[in-house]
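Protocol step 4 of 5: obtain the predicted structure for the target chain.
Materials: sequence only (see below). No template structures provided, no constraints applied. The aim of this step is simply to have a reference model before the mutagenesis design in step 5. Sequence pasted as it appears in the construct record:
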Amino acid sequence: MLTPQFHNIGPHHFDRSYVWPYGGLIVSTDPVAADAVGLRIIQQKRRLAFGEDRPLQPRAHHIALADTVHHLGNADTSRIDLVRLGWEDDILI
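Step 4 output (structure tokens):
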């Protein structure tokens, strides 16, 4: 997630005002866990930018389904061992 977009209209509606230079890498042997962590970072950025909790529309339900229906990995962030390396400023997680 080097320069993620935090509104969820999609790549065909790109708007620079909804992009920020996060500059972080999410590395995992579990792709579902990596997606869950990335989603959590984007949700936190949305809270900061909009001043309230605005759920994604449409919801990113594919991450939970990858865990619960297809058993491809772990989407439960309470069961993800998160290791932070580097600077703590603006980490959002």
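Step 4 remarks: Helices lie at 31-50, 61-68. The longest helix spans residues 31-50.
Proceed to step 5.
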